[in-house]
Amino acid sequence: MATNIGMMDGAYFVGRSEILAWINSTLQLSLSKVEEACSGAVHCQLMDAAHPGMVPMHKVNFDAKTEYDMIQNYKVLQDVFNKLKITKHIEVSKLVKGRPLDNLEFMQWMKRYCDSVSGGGSHNYNPMERREACKGGKDVSKKSAPTQSSRGNTTAPKAHPSRRGDAPSAQPTGPPVKTAKPSSATNVSAYDQQITELKLTMDSLEKERDFYFAKLRDIEILCQSPIISNLPIIDAIKRILYAAEEDATIVEEAQAMLLNQEKQGVSLNPVSEDVEENKAKLETQKRKSIVNLEVDVAANTTLSPRQRISDASDVHCSGSPLMTY
């Protein structure tokens, strides 16, 4: 039983047409797009088909139009997952938006799971009867019934020209009309497929754009921090970030800015400048202290004994507390 399927599994390479054919045949619906099942009611009935009697169909709302009603359907689906101990995460916030890619991926997983449970069989499941207990289920069945009846009765109107044309047996008017209808239908389906592929491509491009925009925004916030905002390299980065037009010379100009500042002797790190200044101050203080000591020693050695006695007497006469005799 497939509960957790990897993204490279073959289930995620099933096409939309196959998914739609599986849904419509299993539940007797007439969906034309996968994202039409974003309300969650179709998912609930697919689980009911895989596990008959497990889903409380009276809580499922096939007439869900708002996100609140859709979320209620997904709550029913999550309760079923919990009962069956299925660890699949349901991204409700993405599914209710009706994006084709998100709904296609989740429906691909649903098909793989239902096939693993039922083995591709229907087990005599009556979807229309089960939908009668749902809110809006009867309307969905009525909408899908005419389409199925029209598909089944397509052979009936084709018999009328043969009845009317008993006398003129060779009338070539019938076959061209028959061939024109399928060609138009195939063109419409091809256009729908192209539109869906373009939507998927646009969704993936939007995700990629949001990802790289968030990265650039983080770099901008980091450059605005007061610790490094005054560095020359930050100015060069800002010049590249805030460039209004695409220009290949912007990077060269930023590099030229850094080279000019290096030639002018401007350090790129203010912390290293402070350290160098402190070192210079300590060296000058050491030199001054050494010079003062050398001067004092030299002065003491050059004084005569008489001058030393006179200096001591001057200190004693002045009443200095340093003299203790």
Task: Explain how this protein is built.
By secondary structure, the chain is mostly helical. The protein is 65% helix and 0% strand. It is built from 13 helices and no strands. It has helices spanning 16-27, 41-50, 67-84, 92-95, 100-118, 127-131, 137-152, 159-164, 174-223, 232-241, 249-263, 270-302, 305-317. α2 packs parallel to α3 (67-84) and α10 (232-241) packs antiparallel against α11. The chain is elongated and about 115 Å long. The model is unreliable at 151-174 and 315-325 (pLDDT under 50).
SSE arrangement:
Layout: H1 16-27, H2 41-50, H3 67-84, H4 92-95, H5 100-118, H6 127-131, H7 137-152, H8 159-164, H9 174-223, H10 232-241, H11 249-263, H12 270-302, H13 305-317
Helix pairs in contact: 2-3, 2-5, 10-11
What does this entry show, briefly?
The protein is an all-alpha fold and 325 residues long. The protein has helices spanning 16-27, 41-50, 67-84, 92-95, 100-118, 127-131, 137-152, 159-164, 174-223, 232-241, 249-263, 270-302, 305-317.
